[in-house]
UniProtKB/TrEMBL annotation:
This is SMI1/KNR4 family protein. It comes from the Bacteria. InterPro entries: Knr4/Smi1-like_sf (IPR037883).
């Protein structure tokens, strides 16, 4: 498993914004509200950095300390949207978490793509990535969020279902 330092290596500007000592997110509250622990690489990323976007396109949903309930409300809203797609027969048989093997959102794009964890494999560190493209593409990646992001930026992960010009050679980095 790649670590946060691998993502920082391919996106060195990220390191300038790292918060020493962590951000103090109430993970117990989040886990209690959502009924699951989140993957450890995501927790590490969220403790080091606030919510950010790459190339004004891909936004990583990171909770704010003190705003954990807003984070969980956003997760629930996205899960409700996926349930509506499923109920309309438009989710390609993907189901929302907490259903077995359900999808759990971690990001979105400016063009309506949604980035999910596929909650199969038991422990959250075994969850993999599924991208729901706005053109009804569903593309899988067998790895973690940090592996996916680092691979996209390094060019070792294909941006399947995403615009062909993403990410740019020198991607922009914006914090909310």
């Amino acid at each position: 498993m790649l670590m946060l330092t691998d993502l920082e290596r391919v996106l060195p500007r990220l390191r300038e914004h790292r918060i020493a000592g962590g951000r103090g997110i109430d993970w117990v509250s989040i886990e209690s509200d959502l009924g699951t622990r989140l993957p450890s690489d995501f927790i590490e990323l969220a403790e080091a950095y606030p919510r950010f976007s790459l190339d004004d396109f891909l936004s990583v949903h990171i909770p704010e300390p003190g705003g954990e309930r807003f984070f969980t409300a956003g997760v629930r809203e996205t899960l409700d949207e996926l349930a509506d797609l499923r109920d309309s027969g438009m989710s390609h048989e993907h189901v929302p978490y907490p259903e077995p093997g359900g999808l759990f959102p971690w990001g979105d794009s400016a063009e309506g793509d949604t980035f999910y964890w596929r909650t199969t494999g038991g422990h959250p560190d075994a969850w993999t990535i599924l991208v729901s493209g706005h053109n009804d593409d569903w593309c899988a990646y067998q790895g973690t969020v940090t592996e996916y992001l680092a691979g996209l930026l390094a060019g070792t992960v294909s941006p399947d279902g995403l615009p062909p010009d993403f990410p740019r050679e020198a991607p922009t980095l914006d914090f909310d």
